[in-house]
Write a structure and sequence with these properties.
The protein is mostly helical. Helices cover 24% and strands 0% of the residues.
Length: 55
């Protein structure tokens, strides 16, 4: 018996969090990632942090 979880064929290998001035800059960094040669690399924008919003 495998367990009570769904069978998954995908696996998250990790993530990088970068501070970029533009989406183009983030895409440039993602293109230079070694994993981009053989895997999918996603670029996602993040919302503002709550700590930065409260001053």
């Amino acid at each position: 018996m495998d367990g009570s979880f769904a069978d998954a064929k995908e696996m998250v290998g990790g993530f990088f969090l970068t501070d970029c001035d533009s989406r183009a800059g983030a895409l440039d960094i993602a293109a230079r990632c070694p994993a981009a040669q053989w895997a999918t690399v996603e670029v996602r924008a993040l919302g503002p942090c709550f700590d930065d919003a409260i001053k």
